[in-house]
Task: inverse folding
């Protein structure tokens, strides 16, 4: 995967990376070409040519991270999502429960894994990920609301002024109406979203087959501890509240 230069996405990533009184927010909005070269191409060939597999094989995905019955924006206790005069259409009908919605072509799965590797190399390696670590999100509005609620809950009015710019730039880059949406669920042990102090994170992929491109939207909140961390950890509970629950905590 090759990172594509994009000044608008870089500016948004920088603007939405900030310190708040409670946590540090790190946001990245990156666009990748699905054309392989160098080490990523070697990895692609390795995964593609595993014995007994074909790039066209369909693999079973994990459950949706946004369509859980336990998911609720009221539960998040976040401000209401930003409303748009002409909201971008969802990628696929939310009523479509075809078995294909719960699968992913192996070739596409390799693109998602390669995107994670490209984004977090050399500190993290995702080559051992399976299709169960990802989900297909069929309703764009649920994805958008999940992202908006998270960022509104910690950034507030500052994000309200940036939300339309974020989504219009994403649409301009990847064409949301023609894109599939996937989500990566942290494994809880070995990825950058499972480190000590992580409060919440989200990781969405927008894959446009025609453009042969993946847009990666990722954000994490790291709890800010001042003073003697060991003493605080021993004597005082960490003051989490509903605004800072992880996606896993909400949807399990």
Result:
């Amino acid at each position: 995967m090759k990172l594509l230069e994009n000044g608008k996405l870089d500016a948004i990533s920088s603007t939405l990376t900030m310190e708040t009184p409670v946590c540090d927010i790190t946001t990245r909005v990156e666009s990748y070409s699905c054309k392989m070269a160098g080490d990523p191409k070697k990895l692609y060939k390795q995964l593609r040519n595993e014995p007994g597999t074909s790039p066209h094989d369909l693999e079973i995905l994990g459950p949706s991270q946004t369509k859980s019955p336990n998911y609720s924006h009221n539960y998040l206790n976040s401000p209401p999502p930003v409303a748009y005069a002409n909201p971008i259409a969802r990628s696929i009908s939310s009523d479509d429960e075809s078995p294909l919605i719960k699968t992913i072509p192996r070739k596409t799965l390799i693109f998602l894994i390669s995107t994670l590797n490209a984004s977090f190399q050399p500190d993290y390696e995702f080559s051992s990920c399976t299709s169960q670590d990802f989900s297909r999100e069929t309703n764009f509005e649920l994805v958008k609301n999940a992202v908006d609620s998270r960022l509104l809950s910690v950034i507030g009015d500052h994000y309200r002024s940036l939300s339309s710019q974020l989504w219009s730039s994403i649409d301009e880059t990847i064409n949301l109406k023609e894109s599939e949406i996937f989500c990566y669920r942290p494994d809880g042990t070995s990825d950058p979203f499972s480190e000590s102090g992580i409060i919440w994170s989200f990781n969405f992929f927008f894959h446009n087959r025609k453009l042969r491109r993946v847009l990666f939207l990722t954000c994490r909140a790291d709890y800010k501890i001042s003073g003697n961390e060991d003493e605080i950890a021993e004597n005082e509970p960490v003051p989490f509240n509903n605004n800072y629950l992880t996606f896993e905590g909400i949807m399990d």
